[in-house]
Write a structure and sequence with these properties.
12 helices, binds guanosine-5'-triphosphate, binds magnesium ion
Length: 297
């Protein structure tokens, strides 16, 4: 399946809800208060969020007024423009050696996304090692092991309960000696409490800074699209401990509320680098604003 088909398939539910309702609304062809009110309802029901919805409606109003738009097609084009401006996508540029640390709350799809990322980068001829930094559960390293096998990359792990920073230390030494391009670090989503989790993350970063100052450091936050507006508040949880560079938004295939992409970009001010559209190894796609907009409208 090519890229476009894949994202279109992944966004099927969103298209059926959001896209279908918007098309129906545009067809009426009268751009009055009623139109904007209904559009606002449609966007909010797709988890675009109230602030972002307001922003979209304001900009659309202006464009429709400025262009003296009277046809449904032209109005839909105006909406596409507005959404494109909000989403302006960024690609993640990796310059080896790089260390990508993946964080996020319990169950959002960190480990799965790491498996897919490892596969994605190794297909681009980068050498990759994954580090099993979630030592909180024994099953976590086993799960990452399975993904490392599938992606055909190396894994560095220790026993359950060991220090995640020590795993990262091992991974860095191994990457240095084998000249590995990219290290991807898995982390725990849940510890006894939030404080432990943040201390653990800070310790990982200290080790990275000390042991591999020359490496490009990339911190990715994984958010689960099916949790809608709740996903937005998860960013704040990690804010104290780390500088997040961008987002991986998972499970877009499982939701009709893919509008959350717009809320994430405009409200968090962070780029969405990848979207997860399924459980398979190639179901992680670099986010592309135009394909996204074309697949929902
Ligand atoms: N449909 C779908 N399922 C996904 C996607 N990404 C992850 N999942 C599923 O989400 C579930 C949780 O994924 P994990 O990768 O274990 O999540 P995690 O964040 O590592 O979880 P913890 O380690 O427990 O914090 C698994 O069943 C995955 O298959 C996606 O893009 N689409
Ligand atoms: Mg995990």
């Amino acid at each position: 399946m090519n890229f476009f088909a894949k994202i279109a398939e992944g966004l099927k539910k969103t298209r059926q809800a959001l896209g279908f309702n918007l098309k129906k609304l545009f067809k009426i062809g009268i751009f009055n208060d009623n139109f904007y009110e209904e559009m606002s309802d449609i966007l909010i029901s797709a988890d675009v969020g109230t602030d972002t919805t307001e922003e979209i409606i304001e900009q659309l109003k202006e464009k429709i007024k400025e262009g003296r738009v009277t046809s449904a097609d032209k109005a839909a084009d105006c909406l596409k423009q507005v959404l494109t401006e909000i989403l302006e996508d960024e690609t993640l540029n990796v310059t080896p050696p790089a260390i990508i640390t993946v964080v996020g709350v319990n169950g959002v799809g960190k480990t799965t996304s790491i498996g897919k990322l490892a596969y994605y980068f190794s297909k681009q001829k980068y050498s990759v090692v994954v580090a099993a930094g979630d030592t909180f559960r024994a099953a976590a390293a086993d799960q990452l092991d399975i993904w490392a096998d599938r992606a055909e990359v190396r894994i560095i792990k220790q026993h359950e309960g060991s220090d995640p920073a020590a795993v990262v230390f091992d991974a860095i030494n191994s990457a240095k000696s084998k000249k590995t391009d990219i290290i991807i670090v898995d982390t725990a989503g849940r510890l006894h409490n939030k404080k432990n989790l943040m201390e653990e993350l800070k310790k990982i970063y200290r080790v990275v800074d000390r042991e591999y100052p020359s490496a490009q450091k990339i911190n990715l936050l994984v958010l689960d699209a099916t949790t809608g507006q709740n996903a937005l508040s998860q960013c704040a949880i990690f804010d104290d401990a780390i500088d997040i560079d961008g987002i991986i938004l998972t499970k877009l295939d499982g939701t009709a509320k893919g509008g959350v992409v717009l809320a994430v970009v405009s409200q968090l001010g962070l780029p969405v680098y990848f979207v997860g559209v399924g459980e398979g190894i190639d179901d992680l796609i670099p986010f592309d604003a135009n394909s996204f907009i074309d697949s929902i409208l």
